[in-house]
Every structure is written in structure tokens, then in C-alpha cells.
Amino acid sequence: MKYFLILTTSVLLATSCGNDTDEISDVDWLEPMIAELAQSSTADYNYVLKASYNGRPVFIFSNCCPFCNSLPAQVYSGEGEFLGYMGDTIAAADVSNEVVYWQTDNGKCVFDDLGESS
Fold first, then answer.
1. What confidence category does residue 113 fall into, taking pLDDT thresholds of 50, 70 and 90?
2. pTM
3. Number of C-alpha atoms within 13 angstroms, CB side, residue 48?
4. Per-residue pLDDT reduced to its tens digit, 96-107
């Protein structure tokens, strides 16, 4: 229930602000993906960033798991379309305005140079 409230609040905030990363009409596709991350055995190492990619809002799914053999971060459009992997089909230089969109309350990842989603 706690994660549902956090997700609902995040979704409401994400769709109510006014910059280019917030102009997303429907983020219902995010709920099951975040719920899956929250239930995984490595949940505290998972996170989702909200950012701009070539001027369009995107969500970046990744982790900071020190003992996982992980794929590069996955990038999805604001509408939920898989766009590619960071560092592979998507250059980090083309991504800007990254903010933490979701992580667990006990999240282990440190984001010194990123803001919190408001």
C-alpha cells in the first residue's frame, strides 16, 4: 500500500508540473513496471529517473546493484515505448534534466548531482 501511495503521488506530481519532462499525458504503463521493481529481491538497488531525451520526456530504469550482472539502463518514452539502452543506442550526452522519479524508501543508490522529482 505504501508503494501505491508513493507511486500515485509521483504520477500526480509528474503530470501536474510545467517543464518539458512533465508533459506526459498518460503514465499508467509505469505503475506495473515500478511495482515489479519494488517487489524484486534487489528492490533497494533499483531506481527510475525522469529526464529529457532530444527534448522529449523519458523514463530511465536502472540500478546501482554492486553484485548484479545488469543490462545498461533502459530508456522509455513518456508514453511507455522502449527507446533503447543508455550508452548503446542512446548517448548519455543526449539526455538532460535527470531527476530521481522513484526509488524505495531504503534505496541504496546515491544521486549527488541529481534533483528529486517534484
1. confident
2. 0.75
3. 24
4. 999 999 999 999
DSSP-derived pairing of the beta strands 95-103 and 115-116? parallel
Question: How many angstroms separate the CA atoms of 33 and 22, rounded?
Answer: 19
Bin 74: left if φ > 0, else alpha if -120 < ψ < 50, else beta. Answer: beta
Distance of CA 99 to the CA centre of its chain: 8
Helical residues (DSSP H) of 1-118, grouped into ranges? 2-16, 30-39
Residue type, 118: S
Task: For residue 42, list its beta bridge partners.
Answer: none
Looking up cell 508533459, which residue turns up? 23
Phi, psi at residue 90, to the nearest 5°?
A: -125, 120
Pairing of β 56-63 and β 46-53: antiparallel
Handedness of CA 95, 98, 102, 107 (dihedral sign): positive
Measured over the CA atoms of residue 15, residue 10, residue 37 and residue 100, the dihedral's sign is positive
